[in-house]
Amino acid sequence: MLKGKRDNFVKTEITKERGQVWGNVHDETAWQMGGLAGHAGLFSTLDDLARFSSFYLTTASPLVAGLFDYDCFERTLAWIRWQKGHRFLWHSGFTGPGLGLDLENGRALVILAGSVYPNRGNEAWLLARRQAAKTFFGGGYREEKQE
Predict the structure, then answer these.
(1) Burial track 20-40 (b if 16+ CB lie within 10 A, e otherwise)
(2) Quick one: DSSP state of residue 7?
(3) Which of 81, 93, 94, 111 has its CA 20 to 30 A from that of 123?
(4) Residue 79 forms beta bridges with which residues?
(5) pLDDT tens column, 72-130
(6) Model pTM?
């Protein structure tokens, strides 16, 4: 559901079924549901993501504290725990963005990039995003051996 001028939106992908996906939800299932679905992520700006990150980094909310009640690597409220024993959170999106939160040091990493434009299959971008997160968090992700 396009609101505002189309030029204000980033093109996400050229598909056979929909043509140029631009200014509408990218996720196919959400698109088939009329553009609204809880699983499909969100459209946002750097300014909004900075405010969102600030909430997690500065709040004493039980919701945020509860994310670390268990020392595991599974998803929790859409977050992935980056490393065991650390208060690090990570979330990435299919179209290329990433958001990392280091609650121990009060830092956030916001990646706003498109990895599926003009088409899917940009494996180089996925590796670059993973490397950026590794650099930010100062170590490997859960499936990598940590010595």
Answers:
(1) ebbbbbbbeebbeeeeeeeeb
(2) G
(3) 81
(4) 76
(5) 666 666 788 888 788 999 988 878 889 999 999 999 999 988 888 888 888 888 889 99
(6) 0.79
Give residues with Cβ within 8 angstroms of 49, minimum separation 6: 99, 108, 110, 112
Q: How far is CA 90 from the centre of its chain?
A: 7
Q: How wide is the angle at C-alpha 75 spanned by C-alphas 46 and 130, nearest 5°?
A: 55
Residue with token string 């409220």: 77
Q: Judge contact between 32 and 40, C-beta under 8 A.
A: no
- For 22, 74, 133, the CA distances from 119, given in Å and listed in that order, are 13, 30, 23
Identify the residue whose tokens are 């590794």. 134
How far apart, in whole angstroms, are the C-alpha atoms of residue 68 and residue 111?
23
Ordered DSSP codes for 75-93 = EETTEEE-STTS-EEEEE-
Q: Could you tell me if 53 and 90 are in contact, meaning their C-beta atoms sit under 8 angstroms apart? A: no
